[in-house]
Amino acid sequence: MRIDILSLFPEMFTGVLETSILKKASEKGAVSYKVTDFREYADNKHKTVDDYPYGGGAGMVLKPQPIFDAVTTMTSKNETKTKPRVILMCPQGERYTQKKAEELATEDHLIFICGHYEGYDERIREHIVTDEISIGDYVLTGGELASMVVLDSVVRLLPDVLGKAASHEQDSFSTGLLEHPHYTRPADFRGMKVPDVLLSGNHAYIEEWRTKEALRRTFRRRPDLLEGYSLNEQQMEWLSEIKKEEETY
After folding, report:
1. 148: domain range?
2. Are residues 205 and 129 in the same domain?
3. Active-site choice (37, 91, 102, 103)
4. Rounded to the nearest 10 degrees, how much is the dihedral formed by the CA atoms of 147, 150, 155, 157?
5. What residue stretches are annotated with the tRNA methyltransferase TRMD/TRM10-type domain (predicted)?
6. Residues 102, 107, 118, 179: which is the catalytic one?
């Protein structure tokens, strides 16, 4: 996968892209990153990329020309010749989900646009952008931090990046449910014990426990997720048991 990032503050990405999983993914050849200051594409001697909004109002608006030219250049350099997904990080965009991360992870080329100031010229949205993404119902200073969140969630899904597919296939939201609890040694820590089932060696029983606990955690913390989740007959029975247990909890 190739990832291009358009930002006025490219130095913000140095630490993020050069550590942990994102760095390992690059070293393995699973992904390549390029962060570009889109001031480089400004067609004026002062490298101005913003201007006052038509009709008046507070703040400055990003001009279309630098973004249009930057995206055109990056698209033309795409060796796979596939059309990139051009992602605008924006509080007005669709709310980001694990499903969206999995969708983006199948692409060959992603271009992230990180804006600042009051907003973007609307023609950027209408004619260049393929996806508008929001990571939550709040406003950040710019799109850099939001794009880092999306980058991390997408790159970790690429083949061989985490080593084992199961590392992310059982993540919260990947299955539609929140993930079950985890434990490690010691089995007894200051009187707090690991559930006996996890020490039993009975893998079928362990898997059943994990599924039930995932249902329990989802019911407790994010019951809204169950509304769109297709439960099989066994899971419906377990959920019914969990609801009765929770009533007396």
Report:
1. 2-155
2. no
3. 91
4. 180
5. 1-227
6. 118
